[in-house]
């Protein structure tokens, strides 16, 4: 599967006696934007942690760029932005990014590049602790962009952003995909689904659908992707 950046087969994750991911399988094409959508608590973050290689799994496999998830060879090939800030409150934006750039051995001009890409030029010398929620999200995204990773795993990257900034970030995501970067972007906001090339719709640890937005509209006979998701939920409940 050389045309795929991520391949998961039979992935299972347990927390105590409860299984939170149930035999999940999917593949993500290189240079694509895949949306991981579903309600809070459905398993999106757990799945993303498994892709990054920081989640203990009970069964199945996850392969990233041809290597098992979590392999040392993947450390500088994956950018991961969590829902929690990954920058230090007592440093400026530039200082925080310089710190992470040094750890990643990123090129010297990377800090200025990623600050520009996420639109934080005016905040470059501002303390992270004084940033707004949306600015903090963009600072965390900037860390994930350091070193030009081949895979970006972004957990709710647009939370707290106004519509203009959300549009700017999605423009950035498309530019990254155009140059060959693969993006896995989670969201619980269904109106972002149409911005993705492919969708993984999740509920209660299962993938209800893995298809393009257009195909999901066709198979559920609706133009509204939120209604398409609800249709799939009702179908699942009917056969449960």
Question: Explain this structure to me?
Answer:
It is globular, with a radius of gyration of 18 Å. Helix content is 34%, strand content 27%. A hairpin with a 2-residue loop joins β1 and β2. It has helices spanning 44-52, 93-104, 110-117, 133-145, 163-178, 213-220, 225-239, and strands spanning 4-15, 18-29, 33-37, 59-64, 67-68, 78-81, 151-155, 182-187, 198-203, 206-211. The strands form two sheets. It has a six-stranded mixed beta sheet, sandwiched between helices. It has a four-stranded antiparallel beta sheet with strand order 2-1-4-5, with helices on one face.
Percent range of helical residues: 25-40%
Structural class comes to: alpha/beta
Q: Characterize the main sheet.
A: 6 strands, mixed
Tell me, briefly, the overall form: globular
Q: Determine the number of helices (DSSP H or I, runs of at least 4 residues).
A: 7
Order of helices and strands: EEEHEEEHHHEHEEEHH
Widest sheet: strand order?
A: 6-7-8-3-9-10
Number of strands: 10
Write the SSE topology.
Elements: E1 4-15, E2 18-29, E3 33-37, H1 44-52, E4 59-64, E5 67-68, E6 78-81, H2 93-104, H3 110-117, H4 133-145, E7 151-155, H5 163-178, E8 182-187, E9 198-203, E10 206-211, H6 213-220, H7 225-239
